[in-house]
Amino acid sequence: MSHAHAEGHTIDHLERATLEGKNKILGFWIFLGAEMVIFGTLFAAHIGLRGELNGGVSGSEIFSLPIVAIMTALLLTSSMTSVLAIQAMHRHELKGVALWLGITVLLALGFLGLEIYEFVHYVHEYHFNIQQSPFSTTFYVLVGCHGTHVAIGIVWISLLIGQLFKKGLTVVTAPKVYVASLYWHFIDVVWVFIFTVVYLMGKVG
Amino acid sequence: MAHAHAQAHAHAHAHGHKKRYTGVMDWITTVDHKKIGILYLFAGLLFFAIGGLEALFIRLQLAYPMNDVVSAQRFNELITMHGTTMLFLAALPILYGFFNFIIPLQIGARDVAFPFLNSLGFWTFFFGGVLLNIGFFTGDTLPDSGWTAYAPLATEYSAGRGMDMYSIGLQLSGIGTLLGGLNFVVTIVNMRAPGMTMMRMPLFCWTAFITSILIVFAFSALAVGLLMISFDRLFGGNFFNTAAGGNEILWQHIFWIFGHPEVYILVLPAFGILSEVIPTFSRKRLFGYTSMVFATSIIGFLGFMVWAHHMFTVGMGAVANTMFAVATMLIAVPTGIKIFNWIFTMWKGQIRFTAANLFAIGFIPSFTIGGVTGVMLAMAASDYVFHDTYFVVAHFHYVIVGGTVHGIFAALFYWFPKMFGRTLNETLGKITFWLLLIGFNLTFFIQHWLGVVGMPRRVYTYLDGQPGWNEMNLVSTIGALLMGVSVVILVINIVITLMKPKNATNDPWEDGRTMEWAIPSPPPEYNFKQTPLVRGLDAWWVEKRAGNKEMTPAEPVGPIHMPNGSILPFIMSIGLFIAGIGFMYDTLLMIVGGLGILVICMILRSLIDDPGYHIEPEEIEGKGVKA
Amino acid sequence: MAHVGQAPAGDQVKRSKGHEGPRNHLITFAISIILTILAFAAVSIPGISKGFVYTLLVLMAIMQVVVQLAFWMHLKDRGHFWPTLAMIFGALCIVYVVASAVFWIWFV
Q: What is the ipTM of this complex?
């Protein structure tokens, strides 16, 4: 696989030390481009249809901003901690990487717990299920799609931590950690638009 | 990287030799881009045959007024499956076969960027295709709402499981396609040999690159659209449920935001194929290489901006219609540039009319007719007349058959010796070409008039005594039968050629210009003994002009690192397939089981590192002597 | 487009020393927090027109995302030509999907 370009370059970042690592990172960026379109299309449906209540409840009636604010704080902080994990990786501190990734997972679990509580609450309190109205369908599919991404991220990063302890920081594991952090930032980026468009604008009406 | 290489090398010595599978196991575990390319090709040809049979039944039903070869329901299923199969399961996979086989060879790489993902993409596509066709085995209704699956026809008024097969089967095969597109983008950006700048890349790679970008962005929109249809059908969602306030036009937007780029996804690679075949058989370099690259990019970009021209009659208003009409007509400009460039390439060239070149030359007038009727349809005012008539059917078959299928057949004859080591029979190839050309024009040219006199699309029969309908429909059916015969001759040609001994030389057309012709036919599993140094556009032609018998190497002979094969992609796709059936029939056990298999395989893949194996220089030399 | 002309796998690993370190990342964190608080505050203040709040919210969300993409996801660094292109293309797609869907459902 080698194209032998190594000579004369400073390799200060482990994740880009091999062609496989570079491929993985670029491929993941392209994947994120596709993810943008996926979420963008769901946003389009939600923005278009959020006024269609079909006799059900509206966003301004049910959304509770304090919970959303806590969820936002958790996810934003977890995005920050995954940056710190990458920084620790660049300093070749295995324990630092594992620690910051572990904190990221804990914060994500908190976020996911609140989201599940929120969904259960809506269904029990307001009978706001997926079939109630176009607003409810687009809400659950959009926010649920994001929540699924969070859940996948939790499993993924947890497995990565295990791998790191087993294999250490190598040219194989480093790109995986880097890519997982990109994924995690992306989830936060999507959430920025979700709390803005779905919750805050929904609250305004 | 030297350090990584050394490390991997050390690994290989520690791990010893590769587990070598043979027979069927070899094919389902392979991660070699060439074998996956062949898998794509044959899977695509299989679906092409199925879609072709469906087309013949459609034409037989329409041969006479008030005919009853098939029932109305069966007819709806046939047109839906014909369109879906041909676009998603035949044309694109066959093109993917060529992408897989040829791109790494043309850019001087040993494999694609993600060999494992490549295999996963193929198997996901394949099982998605099987799921789409599963009604043939279970006796359910097949998908029956047209390949466009317009809501609410597809969501509320389609009984049975047919449209679930459509939404879930296409979802799977779409995921496979998306993975493939991602793979090709990274391959082309990161894996080019030293000296192979973007502007030295063969045009086939350029079109594949732009196509792959379109695939990544367009297929993700389709994925969401299909997800929405699934939610509406399976879980009582309200995306397209107008009674509850949903919006069915939303589906049309999402579908065409995907669907229009899909048209360019299918035709751009054919442009690329022509840009390889015509220079080779004209003994001239491609006229206007740079303008071709820019034309390709502009077509790709504009292709994303014009989706609403499929919806002129929805009631968008005059302003929106005009904007989309003008944008659509703009695409004719870069396409025209391409047509003229091919003609100028042939101008004063030493043209050889091989079967491959015949298909390429046949492409030009056929595709131009399709382009011109496209501009007619692009005018919103005239589209109100043509909309949903056979004129539209004629138009897009001129683009797809006259464009994509001609391109695919040209590529098949052109690259067959490289892929299989044997040259297809030229005489049979020429018979295929002429039968196809006559049959195709007979079938579809007359449909322009059929549309203008008022025959609508997608009707399963018609009354006697309409002006000229009986005669024109009969002519169209005869043409379709001729096309069927031409494809049968092609299949016979492929079968008898594959039974012959391998005798193709490295450069069987003798005028090959790009790097795939510098290595043996078929190429060894590592492609290039040494990574080549690219010294100009048409790299192999440059070396030939310099009197060299092979490419100038960019590295010394050394051990070559190869990835190990893996059964995981196959099992993962089976997992997805089982989960898909579970969703369709509401079986929780199958959903959980299928997704469980998928997740376990993903975890295994992540935990178990693949150190790969090395091919030692001695082994390479031995093979070199044998070849 | 300078990158296009280069051989593959060029000097993407070479990067200026010194930008690393937690400072930029903490500043990004602070900017994100401030923008988030402003967003939540904007909807809590009564008496501002709806259109103004919407515009403000969207602008702040875009600002926050751009900052995060540039610093946390390193898009501002060298060797990120293709990732940046992928993000721009994705953003374009989103803009026209959202714009068309909203135009359709609301105004037609």
A: 0.92
